[in-house]
Task: inverse folding
């Protein structure tokens, strides 16, 4: 008899499992069908300080800026922003949660169906945007309000307002450059290498700190090969894919060859840190701040972190990447994380969230304080001194070739702008050990790229 | 109808009940095993014959036959990475001898024995990622290791860059791995040695055996299972070394072991087929290594009451048999 009972219990358990499995999948659906009942709410129509001042709501926001949670943060922290916001909107309470592993955890939050009112939009497919977030308005209206409106656009609707925007250049210590007698920021690879040499001769600072060990800091060099090195908005996502031997020497100090050659030459001439294998990313910020490092090749997002890493925030500067195309410098710019508003929130919460996002964009000074490029279309305020540099965005891939760069990256294993850190680490290794010339490395890359183009059947121009 | 009745009768019988109980109990563990171990493994073997990324939909995966396997052997970075395992194997052997030595000492009455055991086991309890960070600083120019060596009289200017110099960086990583796993191997040995009957030592001492003889003829044969296990674990471990190179050097600068390269190919370059083929090849290599070790240990351990003979004994017996046969043949010729 006992055996039968066990069997029955087992069967019951299996059946119960089946039932719960069904239950959970049907429960999920009902959650995401709300949302489209707030059509009259639009970003453009909100007048800050006048509209919704009586609105009472508690909203939440999830984001990646853990450093801004701390009272020790060098710039303006979240608490101070919220205090300012509540001067204008005392009845809207915003509860901010931050996370160090944001990119992954944010996706988990979204998939659970129960997520914060405002999120920094993580890597979701554009087609799925409307399942998670509400639209701020159509693209034509939004383009008059904000820059980079097309960052999270789908079907003509805008689902994300960027928190700030960054560009690509070199973060440096002005004082070190001054001490080395460099009066003007270098604009070509030769000038840059000469500047590094001057730093080595005249100061104690490490001219160029590579942050080799961190890995991703190496992959960051890929970001310069498009607009910065060619001045063409079509290069990165279109021409590059079809180029014959894109890593060849063009002879005029432009194109990818010149970008990577700067790193090779600097290493070969011992203008980088002595022991590159044990570099420390957190420590490098303080060292740059103290003047122990001359410069580092990092996006402008790193600029505020360098300023906040010590007492000498005024010494830190940001310069364009030292490549000049036909007498003009260019820089790639693009939106950072964007605010998205939860589609499942109540109408009041949605309105409160949109008010907060608009306030963050127009009144908070967030983008300016964080050394970003302006988001609000009506202003040009920024701390980045890029006068004379043309800021451009990459054009998207042509239709039918959206996945081509990914496929070529995979086949060639170069992984341009996709985590291909090891290939750039190898440049430093070969330069330091002197066991392979730069032209040989570029030849290998060209071969890998050509064979990938062949595999994918790409027309080479 | 009749058959059905027969079935029901059988189901109600003692044998039938036994059958259902066994199936009832086994079905869950078997299902778990099949679904979560063998099914994914079979999928991986299938992947190894395709050119695909993780996100490639099923209908767009391209069947490439043995191409991925050929690539594993042809590419310098794939199969060549196994050479690095030799460093780790040398480290593993060193580690085993050291662990066995320490375990034997610590199994007898030693002052502060438990403290030593604790101290030596401690590294194993630390998270592997944390160890990576500790040793990155440990090996940094002018930091811990260099300072200690300077105390010992080394000239800091003559010391190599532990992680930058490709002649020493793999040894530095192996050192980290030995530091971490030594305690674990030692504790396994101590446990095994503890289970040896203490009366044997007394008897051996009465017969005039010295400490080495006691170790050689009593301890070692008694713990041979654990020795074999430890050897298999450490050889397998050195073939699949991953944590140290991944965290400390991220596999750069000539420290990319097979696993690190595999991870790079699978996740950065998204060549899932090639990475799967690498995994299958490694599995076969580990199989081969394990079988070879089993055979090796079968011959190396002589045990009085073991059923399998030692290599020397077998050779002797064969010789005798051969001699007998020869003799018989000769005899036959004479007749």
Result:
């Amino acid at each position: 008899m006992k055996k039968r009972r066990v069997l029955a219990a087992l069967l019951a358990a299996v059946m119960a499992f089946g039932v719960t499995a069904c239950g959970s999948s049907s429960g999920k659906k009902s959650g995401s069908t709300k949302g489209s009942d707030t059509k009259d709410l639009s970003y453009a129509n909100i007048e800050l300080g006048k509209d919704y001042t009586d609105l009472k709501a508690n909203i939440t926001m999830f984001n990646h800026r853990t450093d801004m949670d701390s009272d020790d943060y060098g710039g303006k922290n979240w608490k101070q922003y919220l205090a300012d916001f509540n001067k204008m909107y005392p009845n809207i309470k915003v509860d901010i949660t931050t996370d160090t592993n944001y990119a992954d955890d944010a996706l988990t939050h979204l998939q659970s169906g129960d997520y914060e009112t405002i999120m920094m939009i993580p890597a979701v497919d554009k087609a799925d945007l409307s399942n998670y977030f509400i639209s701020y308005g159509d693209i034509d209206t939004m383009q008059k309000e904000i820059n980079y409106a097309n960052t999270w656009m789908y079907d003509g609707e805008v689902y994300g307002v960027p928190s700030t925007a960054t560009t690509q250049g070199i973060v440096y210590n002005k004082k070190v450059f001054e001490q080395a007698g460099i009066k003007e920021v270098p604009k070509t690879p030769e000038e840059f290498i000469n500047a590094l040499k001057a730093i080595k001769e005249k100061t104690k600072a490490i001219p160029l700190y590579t942050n080799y060990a961190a890995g991703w800091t190496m992959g960051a060099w890929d970001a310069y090969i498009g607009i910065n090195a060619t001045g063409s908005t079509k290069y990165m996502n279109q021409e590059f894919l079809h180029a014959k031997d894109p890593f060849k020497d063009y002879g005029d100090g432009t194109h990818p060859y010149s970008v990577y050659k700067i790193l090779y030459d600097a290493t070969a001439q011992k203008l980088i840190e002595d022991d590159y294998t044990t570099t420390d990313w957190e420590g490098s910020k303080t060292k740059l701040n103290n003047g122990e490092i001359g410069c580092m090749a990092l996006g402008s997002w790193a600029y505020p972190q360098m300023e906040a890493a010590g007492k000498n925030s005024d010494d830190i500067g940001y310069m364009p990447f030292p490549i000049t195309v036909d007498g003009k410098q260019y820089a790639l710019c693009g939106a950072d994380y964007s605010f998205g508003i939860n589609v499942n929130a109540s109408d009041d919460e949605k309105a409160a969230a949109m008010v907060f996002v608009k306030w963050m964009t127009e009144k908070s000074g967030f983008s300016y304080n964080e050394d970003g490029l302006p988001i609000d279309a009506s202003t040009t305020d920024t701390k980045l001194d890029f006068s004379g540099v043309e800021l451009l965005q990459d054009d998207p891939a042509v239709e039918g070739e959206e996945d081509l760069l990914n496929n070529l990256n995979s086949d060639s294993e170069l992984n341009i702008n996709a985590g291909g850190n090891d290939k750039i680490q190898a440049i430093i290794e070969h330069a330091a050990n002197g066991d392979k010339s730069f032209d040989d490395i570029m030849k290998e890359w060209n071969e890998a790229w050509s064979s990938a183009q062949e595999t994918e059947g790409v027309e080479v121009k | 109808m009749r058959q059905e009745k027969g079935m029901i009768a059988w189901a109600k019988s003692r044998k039938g009940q036994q059958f259902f109980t066994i199936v009832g109990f086994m079905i869950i563990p078997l299902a778990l095993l099949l679904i979560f171990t063998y099914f994914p493994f079979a999928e991986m073997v299938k992947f190894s014959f395709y050119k695909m990324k993780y996100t490639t939909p099923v209908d767009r995966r391209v069947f490439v036959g043995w191409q991925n396997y050929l690539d594993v052997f042809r590419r310098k970075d794939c199969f060549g990475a196994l050479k690095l395992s030799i460093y780790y194997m040398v480290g593993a052997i060193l580690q085993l001898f050291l662990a066995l030595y320490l375990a034997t000492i610590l199994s007898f009455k030693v002052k502060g024995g438990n403290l030593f055991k604790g101290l030596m086991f401690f590294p194993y309890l630390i998270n592997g990622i944390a160890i990576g960070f500790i040793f990155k600083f440990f090996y940094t120019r002018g930091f811990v290791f260099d300072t200690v060596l300077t105390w010992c009289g080394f000239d800091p200017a003559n010391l190599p860059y532990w992680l930058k110099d490709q002649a020493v960086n793999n040894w530095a990583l192996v050192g980290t791995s030995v530091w971490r796993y030594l305690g674990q191997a030692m504790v396994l040995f101590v446990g095994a040695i503890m289970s040896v009957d203490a009366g044997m030592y007394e008897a051996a001492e009465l017969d005039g055996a010295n400490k080495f003889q006691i170790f050689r003829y009593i301890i070692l044969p008694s713990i041979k299972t654990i020795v074999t296990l430890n050897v298999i674990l450490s050889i397998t471990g050195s073939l699949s070394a991953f944590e140290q190179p991944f965290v400390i050097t991220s596999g750069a600068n000539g420290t990319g072991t097979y696993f690190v390269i595999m991870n790079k190919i699978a996740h950065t370059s998204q060549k899932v087929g090639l990475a799967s083929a690498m995994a299958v090849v490694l599995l076969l290599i580990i199989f081969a290594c394990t079988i070879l070790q089993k055979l090796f240990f079968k011959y190396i351990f002589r045990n009085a009451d073991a059923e399998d003979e030692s290599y020397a004994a077998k050779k002797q017996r064969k010789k005798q048999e051969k001699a007998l046969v020869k003799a018989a043949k000769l005899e036959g010729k004479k007749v």
About this structure: Residues 16-38 of chain A have pLDDT under 50 and may be disordered. The interface with chain B takes residues 3-4, 6-7, 10, 212-213, 215, 274-278, 280, 406, 409-410, 413, 415, 418-422, 425-426, 429, 432-433 of chain A (CB under 8 Å).
